[in-house]
Specification:
The chain has about 400 residues and is α+β, with helices and mostly antiparallel strands. It has 2 domains: about 110 residues, Immunoglobulin-like; about 250 residues, Neutral Protease, domain 2. The chain contains 9 helices and 15 strands. The protein has a 6-stranded mixed β-sheet with strand order 10-11-12-14-13-15. Strand 2 and strand 3 form a beta hairpin. Helix 1 crosses helix 3, helix 4 packs across helix 6 and helix 7 packs across helix 8. The N terminus and C terminus are likely disordered.
């Protein structure tokens, strides 16, 4: 589900293509090209999971002291980063720079990827920004392993490799489906991280942010989920491919993914699951026949989901699932790619949708209602009680029956 963006300004998660694990995980120093009279001679990072993340650099300037330095950090899947200023150092022509990002009170999903650059300013006002480097939030608190597959990297611990390969295969199938639907392949693998319990899952969250009904979250281009007791099939065939669909759209659209309505994003994710969606469609037809079908214009709820209303949330997901299932049945799954391509160009969602389908959203709603067996026009007045608003964000854990 769409992740709550809990990584704050100074956080933005960390990265490195080479996996690094140890008591102190660090990225080997690398030479960065010079520009003008200022240059970064070497740079490295150190990940002390749930404690801090340290950026280091050796900087040099010819003929003018360096008076200001900062690290610009962005999470994979975002176009823009945050500027973290190095507060205290004595101006000089050669410097050993360090920025310590405290992470105890941040949400830091393990193996999150980030890119960083050093920004230098000398006393004459000249500015230099180094080439972008990679790093990651390496987690040294567990015996992590990972395996690479087709477009996907799977991270796990304390489970046999045969188990990991089964989970990876489900992730690969989800990847292949959404990749074919969009006609796109990210330039990097989507990371799928699986934790062994809810207790483990909540350890990387900031205090009070991990809710007891969370089952999974997508943090831009990485998904994190956990093994729900007695619900292995739910995790493998529904949660993992569902979250992967969200991460894939983040990779495709970067920051523009937030321009997609929640119902559309969640609907395409449920339709990316490996389990049948029959129960969702059956429920929507029940809602349609009982006059409880939600209007499309009210589907974009924007508030916090509450655990005591999960029955209404189930109906919201069923409705979202049917809206996208109808679209796929009428136009084929590649309609997703046509809509997404339009959004990545110069169109908002409504414009991209109409350009791809030939329907306005109102016309789409009417056709969808006919598909569900309704012939009367939809109500035009605001219902006395609309579905409770929520961010269709973290996948929640099932209660008596699996839920999206």
């Amino acid at each position: 589900m769409r992740a709550s963006r809990s990584l704050t300004v100074v956080c933005i998660c960390v990265v490195l293509c080479s996996l690094v694990v140890g008591l102190f995980s660090s990225v080997p120093s690398s030479i960065v090209s010079a520009a003008g009279k200022m240059q970064i001679l070497s740079t490295s990072t150190e990940s002390n999971f749930r404690q801090n993340f340290i950026f280091r650099a050796k900087a040099k300037s010819e003929g003018s002291k360096i008076v200001s330095a900062a690290v610009i950090v962005r999470e994979r899947g975002l176009r823009h980063g945050e500027r973290l200023r190095v507060e205290k150092f004595e101006p000089a022509e050669e410097l050993d720079l360090e920025y310590v990002m405290e992470t105890q009170n941040l949400t830091t999903p393990p193996w999150q990827v980030l890119y960083y650059q050093w920004e230098l300013t000398d006393e004459a006002g000249n500015k230099f920004v180094s080439d972008e480097q990679e790093s990651e939030y390496a987690d040294n608190t567990r015996d992590w392993q990972h395996i690479d597959g087709d477009g996907v990297s799977f991270y796990w611990y304390d489970q046999p490799e045969s188990f990991a390969k089964e989970m990876l295969h489900s992730a690969e199938l989800g990847y292949q489906h959404v990749s074919a639907a969009t006609g796109y392949e990210p330039p990097y693998t989507i990371r799928v991280v699986l934790m062994n319990s809810q207790a483990d899952y909540c350890t990387f969250w900031a205090i009070y942010e991990c809710k007891d009904w969370y089952a999974a979250n997508t943090f831009n281009t990485i998904t994190v989920q956990y093994l729900i007791k007695g619900q292995l099939d739910f995790v493998q065939y529904e949660v993992i491919p569902h979250e992967l669909a969200h991460a894939f759209l983040h990779a495709r659209l970067q920051g523009r993914v937030f321009g997609i309505p929640n119902w559309f994003n969640e609907g395409q994710a449920v339709n990316n699951e490996l389990a049948p969606i029959d129960r969702y469609l059956a429920r929507v037809r029940e809602l349609a026949q009982s006059g409880e079908l939600e209007r499309l214009q009210f589907m974009e709820a924007q508030a916090t989901i509450t655990q005591d209303r999960l029955d209404r949330v189930d109906d919201w997901y069923a409705t979202s699932t049917s809206l996208v299932a109808f679209l796929y049945e009428r136009f084929g799954t590649d309609i997703l790619g046509k809509i997404v391509d339009g959004i990545d160009g110069d169109k908002n969602f409504e414009e991209a949708f109409e350009a791809a389908t030939g329907w306005t959203l109102d016309e789409y709603e009417l056709e969808w209602r006919k598909w569900l067996g309704l012939t009367d026009p939809p109500p035009t007045l605001l219902p006395t009680e609309t579905m409770p608003a929520f961010f269709a964000s973290p996948t929640f854990a099932p209660t008596k029956t699996p839920k999206p």
